[in-house]
Amino acid sequence: MARIAVVAGDGIGPEVVAQARKVLDAVLPGVQATEYDLGAARWHRTKEVLPDSVLTELAGHDAILLGAVGDPTVPPGVLERGLLLKLRFAFDQYVNLRPSRLWSGVAGPLGNVKPGEVDLVVVREGTEGLYAGAGGSLHRDTPAEVATEESLNTRHGVERVIRDAFARAARRERRKVTLVHKTNVLTHAGSLWARTFDAVAAEHPDVATEYQHVDAAAMFLVTQPQRYDVVVTDNLFGDILTDIAAAVTGGIGLAASGCINPEGAYPSMFEPVHGSAPDIAGQGIADPVAAVLSAALLLEQLGHSESAARVNAAVAAELASRVPGVPLRTEEVGDRLAAHAVS
Amino acid sequence: MARIAVVAGDGIGPEVVAQARKVLDAVLPGVQATEYDLGAARWHRTKEVLPDSVLTELAGHDAILLGAVGDPTVPPGVLERGLLLKLRFAFDQYVNLRPSRLWSGVAGPLGNVKPGEVDLVVVREGTEGLYAGAGGSLHRDTPAEVATEESLNTRHGVERVIRDAFARAARRERRKVTLVHKTNVLTHAGSLWARTFDAVAAEHPDVATEYQHVDAAAMFLVTQPQRYDVVVTDNLFGDILTDIAAAVTGGIGLAASGCINPEGAYPSMFEPVHGSAPDIAGQGIADPVAAVLSAALLLEQLGHSESAARVNAAVAAELASRVPGVPLRTEEVGDRLAAHAVS
Ligand SMILES: CC(C)[C@H](C(=O)O)[C@@H](O)C(=O)O
Ligand SMILES: CC(C)[C@H](C(=O)O)[C@@H](O)C(=O)O
């Protein structure tokens, strides 16, 4: 029986997570879910972000389903570093998986790209790089202030995520991996990534490879997103590129993500890419599709591929049937998805 | 009499620079141009990238016009670090200026954005951040390898580029500056940028301001590029965002840039954003518009605003008259632009 920790979070988080759970319950009866009230609300109440005891409890679950945390009233970094990144690092979620598809029925912003043509997945490194928190400042608030941020990259960390990307590509139809970095400027980290990529590629003669600088990749994601299959890149580049990929496939309202510890030594975490959207919270109009697609990634990770496929099919049907301009109701979308997934 | 150093460079560099010079000569008769053969070809011949003597000579000019340098046969980083970045740093070109306009006649990739609606300029910091070259590696080529890249940010460097951005915004119609960073993860550098931005903003009550995380900005550049006026950001974020801005306004074939030392203590450098494009070099089919627009930025910087405006008008007329599908000839475009600019 799958044991899921649920962090609904703030803003629209609880609204969309409720639909994701509805769908999960439908396709996998008997899921045990425990709720954790982490996020801005708890921080305001207790000034605690993630007590160690809660971290230990979370570790005992098979997976975490997260809605969205954050609120303009919380200082930048508090919940990001204290909760989201803390979990990614504590649970060694080194594969930050972000698929982007242009679904039928979704009007993307690109005039020359048709539904069905874009189906890519970004394998973003999740535990290293500029997210390591290795920065500091001196002479703060004086004219002499200097602030640093350090990108830390290890062969260990780079190799394992590149291996994951190749393994995923080998299971896909086009079998292609694109490495994105900035080897011409970030020569040390870039060289480590490129050499490791070449070494792993040599073990996969069946997988095609290419390299692109991050600025070029950002451009091609807009002009030719069809060209990508699996993209592997570092933590910060992945953060930026996945938002572009989401934008060209209909927006972050549809973008799912998984922070995955592939070995299962720790729970993996699944969350929509969108934030807590305080402007529309409480109105029942948030699109739960990204949360539901994140639940599908969760099912996949726990080995329930068939259930995951049924959720994806339900989403495909839902999106194909949407009429532009007709406002959606969060609950109704969840009901339809749950019903379709078991039909 | 303006003294210009010309670095035509590799691939299509010489072809497009020839047109930029044609236009410059037309609108500003008597420009003195000296050619410098830096780039991949020279490196192959001499294994030298930029001798100190040449650097000193370049320093004696009012501006540098650069085509494109690079070639797949040169190892990554050699020309980038040794020439382009060397010049930006040696000549303290801290304002890396990248305007993006969706010109009439240009079919951008975005279905819902019409010509005339996008007119933004990115003021990218040019002398700090992850471009400082402060990185290294240990235990190279072993399983224990670690590679670092450090982003260095000073109050001095951040403040001067933010001041430039506000000064530019104050001269524009919409008078708005967007700061882009990643304050929720890069908390030290992000805080320095945000505090400095707020301090400078307080001196400009007439300029509207906003802040966006880099991932959100990357997305909004695709979904709502119209919202931006002046964007100020760090060196690496600027590298990525300007390629997105170029992509949504018709591609890097039209994107100009200036690496500017606003005080004029050193020469500023003007170059198209595109590279040397070896695949189409020598065929006379490269679009010289980006190089010509870079020459217009050069004219502007040297105080010849009226000539700059005439070059921009010539480009506007050229682009408005283009018939989709009709191949262009580099020389003919240059001839038309030069003729129009003085008509
Ligand atoms: C909220 C923030 C820390 C996070 C990140 O930068 O990874 C977010 O942008 C994301 O992509 O999940
Ligand atoms: C060639 C490279 C060093 C350069 C940069 O990263 O700045 C280029 O991408 C640019 O944008 O001018």
Automatic annotation (TrEMBL), chains A, B:
SUPFAM superfamilies in UniProt: Isocitrate/Isopropylmalate dehydrogenase-like
Record flagged with keyword Signal: no
Cited PANTHER family: D-MALATE DEHYDROGENASE [DECARBOXYLATING]
Domain Isopropylmalate dehydrogenase-like: 3-337
Source superkingdom: Bacteria
Protein name: 3-isopropylmalate dehydrogenase
Pfam family, one: Iso_dh
Cofactor: Mg(2+); Mn(2+)
Molecular function in Gene Ontology: magnesium ion binding; NAD binding; oxidoreductase activity, acting on the CH-OH group of donors, NAD or NADP as acceptor
Keyword Electron transport: no
Lineage: Bacteria, Bacillati, Actinomycetota, Actinomycetes, Micromonosporales
Annotated keywords: Manganese, Metal-binding, NAD, Oxidoreductase
